[in-house]
Amino acid sequence: MTKPIAVQTAKGGKLANPGASSPAPTGASRVTMQKAVLDLYAAEPAPGGSKPGAQIGSIPFQFNPKEVTITKAAKWERKPAKAGKTAGPPEFKGADGSKLTLEMFFDATTTQDGAVVKAVEMLFGCCIPTEQSLSQKKSTPPLVVLHWGHITTFVSYVTSVSAKFTLFTADGMPIRAVCSVALEEMPGEPLKQNPTSGGYDVRRVHRLVAGETLASVAYAEYGDPTQWRPLAAYNGIDDPMRVRVGSTLLLPTPEELAG
Fold first, then answer.
1. Band of pLDDT at residue 197, cut at 50, 70 and 90
2. From CA 247, how far away is CA 111, in angstroms rounded?
3. Does the pTM exceed 0.85?
4. What is d(CA 49, CA 18) in angstroms, rounded to the nearest whole number?
5. Hey, what CATH class is 195-259 in?
6. Which residues pair with 160 in a beta bridge?
C-alpha cells in the first residue's frame, strides 16, 4: 500500500490498526467498538525527511474523537498575460504537507487518580526529543500515526498540543482535560507493509480482543497460524492457553520471527 495522502484503509480486509484485528462483520455478527490510538515511532533518517522506526509507545483515546480535520494545500502560481483578456495559465509549484487536527478528551472522575495528568504529559512529550534520540545525538521528537479501526493516517509529527483542564480534585489534581492536537505530515519513506499480511514492517503492539488466539493473530499478521509458537516465544509466553483478553503482544517483522 502506498503512502497515504490523508487516510488509507487496509487492503483485502486486513486491518491497518495494530490494536484492531476483528474480522469484518457478516450477517448477524456484532460490530466491535474500535478505539482510536496515536502510535509513536522512533524517527529515523530518510530521503527528504524522516521515516518511522520501531514503535516506542502509544496514546490510546479514552473516548473516540467526534471530529478529525485533515487539510491539504497545493501551491499554484499564475502570471498575468500581457494585453490578455483572461488570466495567464496557472503553474503548479508543489504541494504542502497534509495537516491534521483533533481533540482528545480524558476523564478520571471515577478513579480520581493521575491518569489524566499522565495522558497529557505523554502528548506534550511528543513535542520534545525522545530519550533515545538524545542518547544518539539526533534530538528528534517521535513520529506519530493515528490508527482507528481499519483507518490509518499519514506519518506525521506533532506541531502543537493545547490542554485545558476543566475539573480538579479537592487537592488540585486535574481529573478532566480536553486536548487540542495538531499534526503535520513528515516527508520521507512511508511505513512499509508486508505484502502477505498487509501489516506494517516494524515492531508494533497488538492488543488481544475477545475471540482471538495466538494462532488467529499469527494467521492475520503472517498468513500462517502455525507461527503462533515463535510468536509466543518472542513475547516470552509460557502458557499460550492462558493469554487474557486485553493482553498486548509485540509483533515482530516476519524476518525477526523467522530468526
1. very low
2. 22
3. no
4. 24
5. alpha beta
6. 182
